[in-house]
Amino acid sequence: MVAEMEDAKTQAGIEWDGGGGGADAVLGLTAGGASVSLCYHQAFGPHDDLVLLEAADDLLPDLLRGRVTVRGRPDEEAVLCTPSATYSMKFVGTSNSVFLIPPGEPSAPCLRPDNTNGDANAADVMAAAIKLAPGNIELVRTAPRLDKLRSLLLERPYILDEDLGDGFQHKKGLYTWQDLCKLIQASDGELLDGLNTLTAVEIDGFWRTVDANSVNTILDMILHNSVLYDWPLNAVPENDVLSVMESDGFAHKIVTHCLNRFGTKVEQETRSFWSLDEKRVCLQFARRVLGAGKMKLANFMDKWERSVPSGMRVDIQMLEGEVLCDKLGAETWVHAFSVADLPLMPAERFAALFRERLKWEWKDLQPYIRDLRVPGVSSEGLLIKYTRRTQPSAEAEPIFTAR
Q1: What does the pLDDT look like over 49-75, one tens digit per residue?
Q2: InterPro entries from the entry (predicted)?
Q3: What percent of the chain has pLDDT over 90?
Q4: Under a CB-based contact definition with an 8 Å cutoff, are residues 120 and 138 in contact?
């Protein structure tokens, strides 16, 4: 744009000297009743590469320091991302004329609407408009679009003893951090949170989930060695377990990943220990049992209780957001239905829920929507937008159906 202005100035060989300045003339309008005359800059035109962006004050530091990126594929609506937030970008037209005036003194030539040069001796303060803006891009805080992240990571989960080989074909379905930044419409902070939620791990530069069977194998070996070496489940020594597991052929990074997935690291003086979390471990065994399909609740509880490590106790409350119970006659049946497998966008989430059940009691519905986060919209607002609530009496459990 500066080059265009300088080029126009050179061609015309005229300097506007109408007294005042370009944008400075407008910024200087402080006195009551002050005015400024407007002329067309010699380079006035459509300038389609120039678009106004409306940004709140809290966005300015990131914008001015170049800490924002625009993300989205050609077939997607673009979003603007700061290091920690995502904003939808929507063009909003305006009914008023908005002229853009270059900064500084008006050294470039100007033309009046009648295509004549202004009178250099005129007393009016003049400003040169270089573009008429039809509107601006409005930024609205939005939830990160992470559903695509899950599908990408599921293309090629990590499997024990795999051999990636060399060449492009062997890397197909694998994604680096840079790849994900290009493909996922989310800020860096939100993308990292999404990877953590999906229990992904970076392996040889690629972000991946770990195959369920591989996770089960590693967990079984950790528990087996805990019995073999008499390690308390709330104080598994890190160096010892890693040494033993590596001697059995398990990669250090994958073992550490699984320890972090099922436990919490505890530092004690000069040694590190892992305390395995009862709920997370029991939940993993529940998923295994439910892999056989729908079963009677009593049978499930019996098999689940017998499968977990000694000293751990199961509780049906551990399975909120993981299983659904259905009453069929006198029997209660249970089957897997995990919130982790549901869409992250509210519209798709509620659609999936009502495909599973036409009616939901609040105690059953709540675990499947409490993780939804939409900037500026409360959980009650989501319920109003996507559901109908009925309650036969004040004492009755409210029932939710699709709106």
Answers
A1: 888 899 999 999 999 999 999 999 989
A2: Dcc1
A3: 65
A4: no
The tens digit of pLDDT for each residue in 231-245 reads: 999 999 999 999 999
Q: Can you give 320-383 as a three-state secondary structure string?
A: CCCEEEEEECCEEEEEECCHHHCCCCHHHHHHHHHHHCCCEEHHHHHHHCCCCCECCECHHHHH
CA angle 64, 67, 70 (to 5 degrees): 105
Chain-centre distance of CA 159, in angstroms?
26
Any residues with CB less than 8 A from the CB of 302 and at least 6 apart, and which?
none
Distance CA 403, CA 401 (A): 6
pTM listed for this prediction: 0.82
- Burial class for 130, CB neighbours closer than 10 Å (0-12, 13-18, 19+): buried
pLDDT, averaged across the chain: 86
Q: Report whether 177 contacts 374 (CB < 8 A).
A: no
Least confident piece of the model among 49-53, 193-197, 224-228? 49-53
Residue keyed to tokens 């990636």: 164
- Give the pLDDT of residue 156: 94
